[in-house]
Amino acid sequence: MAVFWKPIAGRLLLTVSLTLLGWGVEGQGDRQGKKLVSGDVTVYLGQGRDIWRPIIHTTSNVSEISCIKSSFQLRTFDPEGAIFYGDTKNGEDWFVLALKEGMPLMQISIAGSLVSVMGGPQLNDGKWHTLEVSNQDDFVILDVDGSKGLVVGMGGPAKQTEDSHAGVLRLALGGILIDKGKMMIQFDHKMDGCVRKGSWLDLRVPWEVEVEEFLPCYQDILPGSYFPGTGFAVFNTSVFPVKEYEGIKIELHGDFSKMHGTILSIKAPGQEMMLTLTANNNTQEVNLSYGSQKISMKATFNKLVITFLDELLQVLKKQEKLQDLQVVSVKNSGFSSTWGNGRLAIGGLLGEGEDNVGSQFLAGCLDMIQIQDRDLDLDFAVKHPSISSHSCPA
């Protein structure tokens, strides 16, 4: 977009977009039925919403911009997701800042040309990092914690003669307003992270809210997947291949004595429940049901490994260096056919129907979830918006 890379007002799309992150979660009224927010407060980026739609968005005239530098703090354990977006010409020219593989990723479309740059320090370590964006000559510079992070040079479009003080900017937080296929580098948009302490441009326009309510940013966090007891995450089991002669292995890490509700359930449509794993914080027990077989365990462990074999179910419990292996013999278990077209729910009990409406939701944190020795990312599940995929309150 031509206005982005012209001197002073023209190079402002990146820093104008950052203003979006500075508006807070205090309602300011209503604009055609939309809740409006403003203020310099902490914002959680992992709000539940339609795919790729932003959490909040607004428009502003370029002529109202008088500042060319913005900064904010970002904290996340999530390696991938959208932070903010801005465009002009109704999306013809646009800019996106995101994380991919834990590093900053900037993508720019200007006058039909695409530019992307990715690199800098890893930002998904759960610590607060200060990001500052500024314009110097023909370059857009992203500083991270006082050091150069990314530099983008766009000299060509700056030669255009359009009025850099005219036009409208659309700004969005936590999502984008264009077709994701237009981006040069694809990424998953969901970001389990927070921004705070924004020092933004001098704009004072309100922002429209796209979510029903704002979820909190916890003061201290640890890596893991957090279930507040209001929903679960569902996967199709067919996406996890069965290893020949090795069966299926599910590994869960966490303080099981602090969990309550259904940790795991597996079921195929039209069939009986294959497996349920539940925790009872009152009795300090963890119970596993596999068909007619039942196992009751004291919740004194922090690692649980469940392995399905043709006619055996192995359950390994481990607390630090101590471990206890239980083996249940199951004749004609049929786990292979169930796994081939079934569903796996983390944090709830699967029900019947297309919506898989369940109950007995989990309240607690799973430090790690692995299926077939691979970490499970809940961002790729159909999940309740209250679930945090990569962080737990400490």
Automatic annotation (TrEMBL):
The protein's superkingdom reads Eukaryota
Q: Which UniProt keywords apply?
A: Disulfide bond, Glycoprotein, Lipid-binding, Secreted, Signal, Steroid-binding
Q: Which InterPro entries match?
A: ConA-like_dom_sf (IPR013320), GAS-SHBG-PROS (IPR051145), Laminin_G (IPR001791)
| Assembly and oligomerization | Homodimer.
A single Gene Ontology CC annotation of this entry is:
extracellular region
Every Laminin G domain range = 40-217
- The identity of this protein, by name, is Sex hormone-binding globulin
Q: What does this protein do?
A: Functions as an androgen transport protein, but may also be involved in receptor mediated processes. Each dimer binds one molecule of steroid. Specific for 5-alpha-dihydrotestosterone, testosterone, and 17-beta-estradiol. Regulates the plasma metabolic clearance rate of steroid hormones by controlling their plasma concentration.
Q: Where in the cell is it found?
A: Secreted
Species name for this entry? Eleginops maclovinus
Signal peptide span per the entry? Answer: 1-27
The cross-references to Pfam families, in alphabetical order and at most eight, read: Laminin_G_1
Just give the chief location class.
secreted
> Which GO terms of the molecular function aspect are on file?
steroid binding
